[in-house]
Amino acid sequence: MSDLHSGVAATGTGVRSRPRAVLPAFCLTQITSWGIVCYAFPVLNPAITADTGWSAGATTAAFSAALVVSAVAGIYVGRVLDHRGPRLVMTAGSVLAALSLLVIAAAPNLTVFFAGWLLAGAAMAAIFYPPAFAALTRWWAPDHVRALTIVTLAGGLAPTVFAQLTAILANHMSWRATSMVLAGILAVLTVPAHALALKAPWPPAPQCPPHVTGGHEQVVRSRAFRMLAVTFTLSAFTMYAVVIGLVPLLIERGYTTTQAAWALGLGGAGQTLGRTLYAGLASRPGVTARTVTLTALGALTTAALATVAGPYALLVAVSVLAGVIRGNLTLLQATAVTDRWGTTHYGRLSGLLGAPAHAAAALAPFAGAFLAGPLGGYPALFALLSALAVTAAAAALGARAHHPEGEGAVSLGRS
């Protein structure tokens, strides 16, 4: 795998070397960042509520607020990345993430707890996938799909590693002490990695592809960009509501909590499998067809979960298939800007494109739980979610970029 070492990559402006330390550094920092800032919270939340007396709804709302802040802050982070590169942003983000965990650990009341999570949300925008994707896309294009796949496969191990580590720590110390230890691990592993591995010169942005005129402002105002944003927002809402709702759906159908947890866990394994398959899909032409197909398959698996009550093995198989689709959708979103508008304004455009999708993902668990009651249960909720996914697939048809040389381009008016 030559892309793991110093090599060359065509960029549209010439040829540049790939900094060899970046890919292993991102594998380490994505596992650590996701594992500690995101996946440790659900493990610790029962201990938090038991110790403080705060309601689970209130503490979870603080975590969701962090995700919303991350979505909004990601727009600004994307602009900075385009001009200055990832080193300063991601290093500062790692420091802020560690500090935010210390604030959360020391929070004497719910107000300070919320404030800590809002800081964590700002840090998420600087250390999670989007800035890493922007860096890999600039340094690795046109072979960036392979690099993105490697990093997302590593990131997929985050819950496996850190949910277990968090549980072990929590069995021997308080949730506050556990959070402090995790903050220290985060700082030790990610701050030096970002500061040292990302110090390579940030190459100048390549020229826009010939079919893209008018700059990033025209891209954002184009019909293709708006419809793609609708597609990803609806798809993200559906995907995260399905993940959170799968366990109560199966319990409602009479399966045990252990059986439901296994179905969810095997779905996560399917997600990892799906990411390994995406490079093959991306090598084929037809970005709109790929987007419509994957989104429609997400709708199909959601509808199957809504209607199939058993046997258990069949439900597990559908859960795994749904995970495969989710894994592909992660990389589909990571490559959406490059596939249509090149890498020139990747950070800014991906930040704008991803903001509503990230906000929808943050709100999906609450919205799903809220709607399940009035709708009459989780099967009806999943039926509604499948209809939203169909709408997302239909919107993807409107994201088609027309251009004389084929798909993957859009005419944006005068320069």
Describe the structure.
Helix content is 78%, strand content 1%. The protein is mainly α and 415 residues long.
Spell out the key features of this protein.
415 residues; 15 helices; 78% helix; disordered N terminus; disordered C terminus
Number of strands: 2
Separation, N- and C-terminal Cα atoms: 39 Å
Q: Averaged pLDDT, please?
A: 82
- Helix percent band: over 70%
The biggest sheet amounts to:
2 strands, antiparallel
Give unreliable regions as ranges: 1-15, 403-415
Topology of helices and strands:
Layout (H helix, E strand, L loop, with lengths): L7 E3 L4 E3 L4 H31 L3 H29 L2 H20 L3 H18 L1 H12 L3 H12 L2 H13 L4 H23 L17 H7 L1 H30 L4 H26 L4 H21 L4 H30 L4 H30 L2 H20 L18
Helix pairs in contact: 1-2, 1-6, 1-7, 1-8, 2-4, 2-5, 2-14, 3-4, 3-8, 5-6, 5-14, 6-11, 6-13, 10-11, 10-12, 10-14, 10-15, 11-13, 12-13, 12-15, 13-14, 14-15
Short description:
This protein has 415 residues and is mainly alpha-helical. 78% of the residues lie in helices and 1% in strands.
